[in-house]
Amino acid sequence: MCRFPLEWAAPDDVVLTPEGIIDTRGNIVPLSADMIPAPWGWNKAVKQQFLRLGIDQRLMPTDDELDLWRTFASRRWAAQIAKELYSMLHDNTFVVENHACFCDTNAQLDAWFAENKGQRYILKNEYSSSGRGNSIDRRQKVPVLADRFYAKAIDFALEYETTETEVQYLGLSVFKASTSGRYEHNYCLPQPQLHDMIVEHIPHGGTQHLQTLVDAYHTLLSTHLLHRYRGIVGIDMLVTSDGLIHPCIEINLRMNMGVVALNLSTC
After folding, report:
1. What is the pTM of this model?
2. Residue 250: closest CA among 73, 111, 37, 18
3. What's the pLDDT at 9?
4. CB atoms < 10 A from the CB of 119, how many?
5. Sign of torsion, CA 60 230 36 127?
6. No. of helices (H) and no. of strands (E), the chain
7. pLDDT at 167 (0 to 100)
8. Would you say 204 and 195 are in contact if contact means Cβ atoms under 8 Å apart?
9. Cα maximum dimension of the chain
10. Which residues in the chain show pLDDT less than 70?
11. Helices (H), 167-226
């Protein structure tokens, strides 16, 4: 771990670094068993690291919770949420058609290719590689998420946080990713500028369409995640070169660079 988390740490937070545990003023402080861990993302390996440090396990998610969170972090779950999202959109003329399909068998994948014959496509493993690019070869074994490949004008995301009591919308993030999906950088700008960067690529009603998606995802996350997951939820999207929104590229249940950029832009 490094000092980077100091960029979004609260004034009374401490950060675990190679030099030791430091506070936001750079002072080394002793570890206490009642420190509440807040890693970039949770899994059982991360939990074991904190347990070895002596952190009280009652301050961390249970193994059952981590198993459930892993389910929510899968592209299988994201594909289901996308279907629910499209069913909620009374006006779906501003989004691309939903061609995403999670395929468990080669027969399902072959059927998807037959339905999308002649289209450029992208295949993704069930779990995200966290910004390192996600496309895989057609010969990759199932399960995979299959979707059409879209020429894009801009990448962006909606950022939320699920607490013990509510789902909070944090704001927009705009980022740059390569054509293979590899993360490059975020734009650290005020929300109005990020909003304008996005809507300039949407011919009509961009502001209204973004608000529609913000509200729809707030409903979906409240339905599925409230009281079941605690933490950041980032939903990656893009605007295509012809001005349509792909509303569900990724759903990330972890801290992400968009939230870091959002926090820095409001400092």
Report:
1. 0.90
2. 73
3. 84
4. 12
5. positive
6. 7, 10
7. 97
8. no
9. 61
10. 1-3, 129-140, 267
11. 191-199, 206-224
